[in-house]
Structures are given as structure tokens and as C-alpha cells.
Amino acid sequence: MPLCFYQAWYIVQPVSWWTRPVFVRFKRESLARAVLLELKGAQLCVSLFSRLSSLVSRLSFLGIATCLSVATLAALPKVTQAQAFSFTGGANNNKTNWTIGQTFTVGASAISVTDLGIWDQAQNGLAESHIVTIWDAGGTLVPGASGTVPSGVAGTLTGEYRYTSITPVTLTANTTYTIGAYYLNNPDAYAGSVLSGNITTASGVAYGAARGIPGNAFPTTDAEGIPNYVNANFKFTVLSGGSAPEPGTLALLALGMVGGIVARRRK
Question: What CATH topology corresponds to 82-242?
């Protein structure tokens, strides 16, 4: 073997034995770092799982709240607006400076009046505007139960009647009221002498008797002597339990139910 080879081997060999502990130490540190990274990864997984579980729980409560709200709304009675009166036949009449109308009785449940109306003979518009009013049996104006149906076709047409909307007014169950429409001049006809069998009333109210008096006033009797006027009208909804449910009440009910479930889950 050449001398130069042995010399090179003796030179490299000590260096190789001297660096070996360094490589071993490096491998140990690398293993420790790997274990540490594994531990951190496990902690991260646990943290992510915990957060995901919390998110799923919150979404579950949101779903419960939504379901409860829908169920609450579904459990409420359906509210349908109705027109109090309709008729067939009768005779057309005209009056100047008269209030013409009729009495009616509310049924077993209170009602909410939302619109006041007057008969539009040909359904082609009114020649003048008309004040429509509801009084109690003693002749006192029911607060808020008065409105003016505009001339022309501005009023909402439902069947043969034109309406103006009012802020809903509650009428008491099993109570008699009077509704009347004021005719300042006589271009618009009113319907009278309608046979009782030809008057249809919506569920929740009952037709009473004709009422008419000169002037814009409470008609105490049928001063004209023509039976069964059906010229003044109104729209209403029947109130279950005597009052309409407020949106805020529904929201509080749903929130309270969700709160009860949350409290049970925490126990």
C-alpha cells in the first residue's frame, strides 16, 4: 500500500471518530424536537376539536331556537281578514246631508276593525268622499273608529265596497255597535230595502237593523223608514283570547324556551 494512502487514512480517521459524538447528539436533539412537535400537534388537535364542539353546540342551540320560533308561530291561530257584510238585490236610494247605516253585534270573540268602507254602486269610483264611523250603543264614537273614504277610485275596492284603512280598533265581544256613512250631497247611491235573506255576514258579526238620520250624527233610529241598509261596511279580524299577539311576545316566548333548555344542559 502506498505511503500516501496510510498517511491520508491516519489523518481522516481521527477526524471521523471525533465528529461521531456530534452526530449522535444531533440525532438525539432531532428526536426530541420531533417528539415536541408531535405533542404540540396533539394539543392543536385537541384545541381544534374543542372549538369545533363548541361551534356545533352553538349551532344546535340556534337550530333549536329557530325550530321553537317556527313551532310557536305554527301553534298560533290563523288570522284572516273578512268583510263584514255583502248583499244582493235591494233598491238604490239617494239622500243629501244624511247618515245612513246599520247596527251590528260582535260575536263571542272580540274583533279588530282594520278598514272602513262604503258601497260603490257600479264599482267605478265614488262621486264624493264619505266619512264612515262606528259608535257604541250609547252613541259615543268608538275611539279611532272613523275614517274618510276618498272620492274616485282611490279607496281600495273589495267586492262592491271601497275602503280606507285605519289603525286597528278593538270591538268588544257580545256587544252591539252602529256603523254609518255620511252623504253630504246625493251623487252616490246607497242600498236599502234589501231582503234579510239576501244579506250575508261574515263569521264573528251579526247584522242588526237599519239606521238613518239627517246630518253627520249618530243615527239613533231608522228615520227614513227604509229597512235593511247595507251601504256602510268594515273589514276585521277575529281576536282569539281577546287580543292580538305582539311580535315581541312571540320572540320572548321562543327565547324563554331556549333559555330553559340551556339551563337544563348546564345542570
Answer: Jelly Rolls (2.60.120)
